Predict the 3D structure of the following.
Amino acid sequence: WPEEAWELRAMLLSKSPYLSTEVLMQMDEKGILPDAMVAEICIANPEATSKDGFTDWLEFKAPHPLPSYMIDQIIASWDSKTYRFTLERDMASHHQDMTQAAVLWLDRFQSDSSYTPMDSLRMVWRQVRTSAARYAEALTFIEEGRYDSARIVVEMIPVEDPKLKEKQLEEKDRMLQLVDFFRDMAAAGKSAAQLGHDDITRLEGIIDGQYDRPATWAQNLLCFHYKRCRPPLTGGEDRPAPRMVRAYTADGTAKALPALVIRPNPANTWVVFEYRILKAVDNAYIRVVGIDGRELPRIPITAPEGQPVYDTRNMAKGAYTVELVNAGKTVETGKLMVE
């Protein structure tokens, strides 16, 4: 094969298993590598090739599709776990701990005080560098009537995360429309309960059949003040059901409920695993794994919701990983400390 192929192969393998699905697709589209090299590099990146739809694309839609037996080899590579898998899992667990700590901090702060300074809420949300935290931060500015500041926070979302998909960018644009709506209402001296026909029509335009954050907040306003409600998103042929059950705070903003709650934590003699499974229960269970990798007896699950109690009296002190598993997939992961 031409030297270019070997150079490309060496470069891509040197970056494996950290290649993205997009890079693997570009590799095929270049048409430089023979099928064996394409398969070799794909096998070296199981986390990227296991993304939904990639192998179907590579077998049937790619400019240079691979034969089915090579696709089978790529699929077989998914059983092996690379350091990338461990690293991404640990990063996700760390991020989840940060987010849960922020939510618990805010809940405790708000429940212990009749007045919550907005700058305190923003300080908490700024510790979590996600789009969801930026939307929450923007809401604090809206509540204070600082609409320019809210716009700046929202406009920075794609700067902080340049890999946003089209739907996420559309959500950002809807949020900017919602900020402008509240700014115009404030300038006209109107409250949420004093909207006219044109104002309601404008809100409905922001909603436009969507279920993202700004669309949901706009819908909550219409439902609460004007009884223009709609059924919640439950899934279907065109829309997947949301991963989290959602509740709503007193001001109508959406609040995500975790699929797995561990309490008390740290635990001494017992712990409750409160869980919710939104899909059909299929061979579901909760498993507890020690820091040494040893798995404790599993808790079988037969109902979509429950609060099984786990005896911790004979467990060694230390940290444990708790996983909620359904249909062979991990729904939620949490940390348990045993004292």
